[in-house]
């Protein structure tokens, strides 16, 4: 009992300093510090690195050799500048990053990109790649892409843009990569160089493809057989692709039954194409951007058959081919509509009333470049769109009165964005903010220039303010000018009162 408790023996632990290692004990922790990361297993450090931003992750990997090794082995995403000189460092690069599954190769337009040999080397060192993105790799040919497809058969997403390979390379991908789910092709030069007569074969990937995106292609219709054979295709995006798409979509009308999302932008498609797309009863998202041949007839066909529609975006390009009739059909047949974006379309209170009455889940609404959206239409939206949360108004004849209507309506509204609406000033926005404290108001109203004013004394030594109304700027309504002058008048009244006090005389207002 008289013996004191024995003091535990200090535990010796290794501490890494740069590339050197020394021993330290618990007794001198306060002096030299202790590397507590040594107690963490490699798997925990890998999770920490995974949560860091790209820059922090790079800097952290330089702390010590252990961190460098763990960071390299845990990195799954890698983006490289794919210039020709990159091929010289491939052995060392991929010996460190041996777990990469997502690879991006992007070259500057004015530089020479890597060639087929480099791509083959990558495919041999990274057989587990699941995502590959190629940008401006103009030195790659069908041979290199075919080797990539043969060596990396687990590819699920493939994207290429401004490359030079052609149909044979794409066919090799579709034939060898049985798990391919997403295919994105943009400005593929090899397809236009004498390959117009050759078509894309479906291959084994047709059974798994869920998304096809084609952009800026002169001969995109050579993908027609692939689109028809992709029975599980859910997303189809066509951007600025030449050719008559009405004819092709008409042929594919019975083969695109499972589409959920469709994007058409600047392509030659009209009501026949929309009627073919309407066979997809599961369609939920439809974007029609500057498709000048689409009219109310095609939109009504979509509305009648695609009753699950949730998001609709229409850029009418000021052609006035889609109006109240098409929007009323959407309102009557698509009660699940949650998001509606109208650009260059001129709806009136007739269609807005129907949309507000039938689409009770409408949460996001954008009205841009419309000549018919005024204060009356905004008042209709404020009174009847109960579920609305976000509202965007741009380049519409709306004034401060419309903002006043919003202040008392749309109980669930959380954000309002107003752009290029000359009738809306900061006075209306401030009043809206004051009335709805929790509402986020984003306004870019340009106030008229401040008026010039001269203060002088009249014959009775009374201060007089002369306002040169010609400096107001562009002509506008009297209410707009009056609202912008309110603050200026207050300031000048204060200035006048100071002058009176200095003169030492009593003046009545």
Q: How would you describe what is shown here?
A:
With 509 residues, the chain is of the alpha/beta class. Among the domains are: 75 residues; 52 residues, no CATH class. Helices cover 35% and strands 19% of the residues. The protein contains 19 helices and 19 strands. It has a 15-stranded parallel β-sheet with strand order 3-4-5-6-7-8-9-10-11-12-13-14-15-16-17, covered by helices on one side. A two-stranded antiparallel sheet has the order 1-2. Strands 18-19 form a two-stranded antiparallel sheet. α5 links the parallel β3 and β4. α2 packs across α4, α6 packs parallel to α7 and α17 runs parallel beside α18. The protein starts with 11 loop residues before the first strand and ends in a 6-residue tail after the last helix. One of its GO terms (cellular component) is SCF ubiquitin ligase complex. This is F-box and leucine-rich repeat protein 2/20.
